[in-house]
Design a protein that fits this description.
Layout (H helix, E strand, L loop, with lengths): L2 H12 L6 E7 L10 E3 L11 E4 L2 E3 L1 E5 L4 E4 L9 E7 L4 H14 L21 H24 L2 H7 L11
Antiparallel strand pairs: 1-7, 2-6, 3-4, 3-7, 5-6
Helix pairs in contact: 1-2, 1-3, 2-3
Length: 173
């Protein structure tokens, strides 16, 4: 099994294919002041060919300039006080990250690696251990995701979205 096949299988296990998670008409983050062309999606790792931008509910021309960061560039700046949204699919992990989890999974099941083989440890796993390595990689991926979500919950970007970009923040309840 190559990395390509293993990544596809791991994405299926994790429900992280390019068609699993959809954001529909989700607000974009950025100044809607009539001159700003660059906005950011709340979700990261956007599947580029699924992206569609909307201003005041109507489709507009915009492109993903950085799919990992979720950066979007509009052809025409949305007018002040416009509603700026987008629909797209997104993924939790990059292929390079899943490759790392597969290699760490190979090491976790007892594959003896040297510094020369650590970067491709998964490729050295005997066929009978591939399933165990995929399970270990999925476990490590899930743990990484949990850590990311906890960190993101307390990030400035999340708090900005939560308080709708005002300096006052949300009222205490």
């Amino acid at each position: 099994m190559s990395y390509t096949n293993a990544i596809l299988e791991l994405r299926q296990m994790l429900s992280d294919t390019d068609q699993h998670k959809r954001s529909t008409r989700k607000k974009l983050i950025g100044n809607v002041d009539g001159s700003n062309l660059v906005f950011v999606t709340y979700d990261k790792r956007i599947v580029e060919d699924t992206f569609q931008a909307f201003v005041n509910g109507l489709p507009v021309q915009a492109v993903i300039t950085d799919p990992v960061a979720g950066e979007v560039a509009f052809a025409v700046a949305p007018l002040q006080n416009s509603t700026v949204q987008a629909s797209y699919y997104w993924q939790w992990w990059l292929d390079t990250e899943l490759t790392t989890f597969l290699n760490k999974g190979a090491e976790a099941v007892g594959l003896s690696t040297t510094s020369a083989t650590t970067d491709n440890a998964y490729l050295q796993v005997i066929p009978g251990l591939k399933s165990a390595v995929l399970q270990m990689a999925a476990s490590m991926s899930a743990e990484s995701l949990a850590n990311y979500l906890i960190t993101r919950k307390h990030s400035a970007e999340h708090l900005l979205e939560q308080d709708k970009g005002t300096d006052e923040g949300m009222p205490c309840v």
